[in-house]
Structures are given as C-alpha cells and as structure tokens.
Design brief:
Elements lengths: L2 H5 L6 H8 L4 H18 L3 E4 L1 E6 L25 H13 L4 E6 L5 H16 L6 E5 L5 H10 L3 E3 L7 H7 L8 H14 L2 E4 L2 E2 L6 H13 L4 E2 L2 E2 L7 H8 L5 H22 L3 E2 L3 H6 L3 H7 L4 E2 L25 H14 L3 E2 L8 H7 L1
Parallel strand pairs: 1-11, 1-12, 2-3, 3-4, 4-5, 5-6, 6-8, 7-9, 8-10
This protein binds S-adenosyl-L-homocysteine and iron/sulfur cluster.
The site of iron/sulfur cluster has 9 residues, from loops.
Length: 365
C-alpha cells in the first residue's frame, strides 16, 4: 500500500487504519501527521482548549493491574481533597479562563462519595453563574448516580474502555467479577442515554495488543458515537502486577517506550483522520515518554490539553504511572508551560470557552 494513496481516500476502512497505525518511517509519519493536522484545522480549528484537571482523591476500590493507585498498592498514602479546596481551585480555573474543569479520582461507589461529588458539582456550577463546564472522571457507577450528578450540573463524563477487546481487557484486570468489560461498556451506554457528552479512550502499547486491536478501538469510538477521546501510552508503574511483568520480560527499554509513544501519536492522527470532528486530548502520559510528547500529539490532530490543578501537596500521591511530569509545578506554572507548548505548534488557546466537541452538536442536528 502507498501512504499517499491511502491518505487521499475519501473513506478509510479497517485495513487502511491498520496500515496507517503501523507506519514507522519518518517521511511517512510526516505525511500522516500533517494530513491529520489539516483535518483538525478544517473540522475543529487550530484552537486548543483547556480543562483544568483536579485529581481530588486517590482512594480506589478497584485493583486494575496497571495502575499505581490500585487498592492493593500499600506504598500509597491515601488522600482526600477538602471540598473548600476543590471549589477554590475551580474558582481559580474560572478566573484564569480555563472554560472547564475535570474532576478525577479513584473509584468509590459508597453513598458518602456520591453525595460528596454531587455537592461539589453543585457548588462548582454556582461559580461564575454556571460559566464553568464540568467533566467527571470517577469510574463506574450506577445509572442513578450518573443521573444525580448530571442533574447537579456535570455535562461531560470520561470513562476509558481501556481496550475495545474484552479478552485483552480481562488480562489487564483481576478476574474477580468486579472488573468487567461488559459493565464498563454498559456504563458508557447509560452516560450517553442520560445526555452526557461521553469521552472514552484506550491505553496504547499494552502487552499483547495488536494493530488490529487499535483499529478496532477507533471503530468502537465511531460505533459508540463518542464525542471526546483521551488516550495515551501505557506507562509502567513499578509497584503493580503489570508493571513488574513488563519490566521482567525486558519490555520497558527506551526503544519499547519510543515505540509506545510513536504508536500513541499515530493513534491520535488516525483517530483524527477517521472521526474528524471529535475532541482529542494530548495527554500527560505522552509527555512522560517524551518531553515534547504533548506537542507531537497537537501536531498530529489533538486539540485538548488538561493542565494539572491538583493541589501541589497531593500531586506525588496521585501517580498512576512512574515519572509523571509536573509534580513539582504549581497550577500557575502548568498554565504558562502549556500555553508556551500551544504557541510552539502554531495553535491558539480557546480561553474562557467550554470547547465542546462539534461532533456532539453535529449529531443533534
Ligand atoms: N478511576 C477512574 C479515573 C482515574 S484512572 C477510572 O479508572 O476511570 C484514569 C485513567 O488512567 C485510566 O482510565 C487509565 O487509562 C489511565 N491509567 C491508569 N494507569 C495507567 C498506566 N500505568 N499507564 C497509562 N495510563 C494509565
Ligand atoms: Fe482505580 Fe481507575 Fe486506577 Fe483502576 S485505573 S485502579 S479504577 S484509579
């Protein structure tokens, strides 16, 4: 197959997706990324939007085999951010024109947690008279809980499917009945039915994952009518079952990490080419594997950045993977640093706007 011929096609099929995802030669990657950037410019503009990312608690009832804050990691000191600090950070985001805030945490399903999140959403909604968009990323919940939080004012929800392949998903999670692909998929369906703009995504470079799996992930986004996509490379956490397995198998070398980063940037580009009008995040995990990982993603079609607004005193305790960047920075530094990154690729920042995915509204027409 010839890359120019594939990029010139009006519609890509699964075979084309696999072909594009597998490109490694520099000249082919240049062509792929610049074609994706053109699609970004045409469909969502060369404007990047900010979502202040507030990681408010690392308590988690789950035990995902890859994640540094999994329940069984006893090295982690658990924390909860007090409500008034969360609201103060949301106000900071509003004052600095972030347009929207994302609340992320480990998963809990108890009543106290559900009430807490509902309260926080209500109070953030009052900041600037509803001016701040609110995205939640707090795992699997019942439909009733999702509805309560929606009614309180949250309008977007991020829940990564992690892999659209249920068999691969199972290898990443304990087989204890509490980590089920079909439950996760049903959560995505409930969120969409309630009216949320739904975000999902996958980890890239997982042991056993093929290019076909990744192509299927993109087809899954299409089938689920996903408006926002957040994906990034799998990054080892030293004190997790999967991290240990990968290190012991000699699969965490600089070459392997470079491959995972390239594959992640390819996924951003191919997703942009295929889905066109969705929001795609340039995630922190990309920067973990390369100092300019986020810029690479923006140049390959991503249009969302999530500057950290997690309280500095809690940042070191929220490490899903090793070598997470920005641990030493305050929220002001993250804001300035990311603005410089946006300018360096020739984009502008959509200050003070929600930056909703045009896909969501195109679909309502
Ligand atoms: N508990 C919530 C939100 C926090 S985890 C949830 O699981 O949905 C957010 C995301 O971090 C996960 O969906 C997963 O894709 C990602 N993540 C966790 N561990 C990771 C690792 N070691 N490398 C890369 N991404 C990871
Ligand atoms: Fe908990 Fe989310 Fe980490 Fe799984 S990925 S252990 S649910 S924080």
């Amino acid at each position: 197959m010839d890359i120019s011929a594939v990029l010139n096609k009006t519609e890509l099929n699964k075979e084309d997706l696999v072909f594009l995802l597998g490109r490694t030669a520099k000249d082919e990657l240049d062509q792929l990324y610049s074609a994706a950037y053109e699609v970004k410019k045409e469909w969502v503009g060369s404007v990047d939007y900010y979502r202040g990312l507030l990681e408010f608690s690392n308590r988690c009832i789950k035990n995902c085999r890859y994640c540094g804050i999994r329940r069984d990691n006893e090295e982690v000191e658990r924390f909860d951010t007090p409500k008034q600090d969360i609201i103060a950070m949301a106000r900071w985001c509003y004052d600095r024109q972030y347009g929207s805030v994302t609340l992320q945490s480990g998963e809990r399903q108890d009543e106290a947690f559900i009430d807490f999140v509902e309260d926080v959403v209500r109070e953030i909604k009052a900041v600037g008279d509803g001016a701040l968009g609110i995205t939640l990323c707090v795992g699997e919940q019942t439909r009733e809980t999702y509805q309560r939080w929606y009614d309180a004012g949250a309008h977007r929800y991020l829940l990564r499917i992690e892999s659209s392949n249920p068999k691969l998903y199972q290898t990443m999670h304990p087989s204890d009945g509490h980590h089920r692909w079909d439950v996760r998929k049903a959560c995505l369906d409930s969120l969409a039915e309630i009216g949320y703009q739904v975000g999902t995504g996958v980890m890239i470079g997982l042991p056993g994952q093929t290019l076909e799996d990744l192509a299927e992930d993109i087809l899954f986004y299409q089938k689920q009518d996903i408006a926002m996509i957040g994906m990034g490379p799998y990054v080892v956490h030293h004190n997790t079952p999967l991290g240990k397995q990968v290190v012991e198998a000699g699969l965490d070398t600089p070459e392997e990490r470079a491959d995972r980063l390239r594959l992640s940037v390819n996924m951003v580009a191919v997703t942009r080419l295929f889905l066109k009008d969705v929001n795609i995040a340039a995630t922190t995990a990309m920067q973990t594997l390369h100092p300019f990982g986020r810029e690479m993603a923006l140049k390959a079609g991503a249009n969302i950045l999530m500057p950290l607004v997690t309280l500095p005193r809690f940042r070191t305790q929220y490490q899903l993977y090793d070598n997470k960047p920005c641990l030493e920075d305050g929220q002001e530094q993250c804001r300035n640093c990311l603005s410089a990154r946006v300018a360096s690729v020739g984009d502008t920042v959509g200050w003070g706007q929600w930056g909703d995915s045009p896909h969501f509204f195109n679909n309502l027409k």
